[in-house]
Amino acid sequence: MKIKYQTVALFLATTLALSSQTTVPASAATKIDSNLLSRGTEKEILRILDETTVKNHVRLVIADKIGWPYAGVSFDDTFEILGVDSLAMLGIISDCEELFGIVYDRDTRETIFATYLDMTVGEFAAITYELYSDAYDL
Predict the structure, then answer these.
(1) Residues paired with 78 in a beta bridge
(2) How far from 96 is each of 89, 91, 101, CA to CA, in Å?
(3) Is the pLDDT at 36 greater than 80, yes or no?
(4) Residue 1 located in a structural domain
(5) Which of 2, 25, 48, 122 is most enclosed, with most CB atoms within 10 A?
(6) What's the CATH code of the domain at 70?
């Protein structure tokens, strides 16, 4: 089952997957959902993520969208090497917006779509982190 980025609990379940390099089933999120959300709002929880965590989750979104294992996607890979087309790129942007509670403004989207084939995963992750840090005043 592919990971669906809809709740903070599932988001944090994927963090566990990153640390162990294994897949965490979506059902694992329900075990931590009530405890996690009772401690703070979704926005408060998202605000505590550091740059490395955000960038790794961007990488996870990309891997999920193209159907590759997380370990198979490097920050140095270009979207062209990964075989990402414009429709997949739109999906990646949409998933990141939903996951992080951010919006890629028109200029940022235009820049991404004009250069995405030559853009690396790391460069896209850096753009996403910049938007994330601006959104949460980090």
Answers:
(1) 120
(2) 11, 9, 8
(3) no
(4) no
(5) 122
(6) 1.10.1200.10
Q: Radius of gyration (Cα) for the chain, nearest Å?
A: 15
Distance CA 65, CA 56 (A): 14
Joined together, the tokens standing for residue 101 give 């509670």
pLDDT tens readout for residues 4-26: 444 444 555 555 455 444 444 44
CA of residue 110 relative to chain centroid, distance: 19
Range of the domain at 120: 8-135
Domain count of the chain?
A: 1
Determine contact, residues 18/60, Cβ cutoff 8 Å.
Answer: yes
pLDDT tens digit string along 96-113?
Answer: 999 999 999 999 999 999
Confirm whether 3 is domain-assigned: no
Is residue 47 one of the residues assigned to a domain? yes
Contact assessment for residue 84 and residue 53, using Cβ atoms and an 8 Å cutoff? no
Assign 136 a pLDDT band (cuts: 50, 70, 90). confident
CB neighbour class for 31 (10 Å; exposed up to 12, middle 13-18, buried from 19) = exposed
Maximum Cα interatomic distance, the chain, rounded to a whole number of Å: 43
Residue 69 forms part of a structural domain: yes
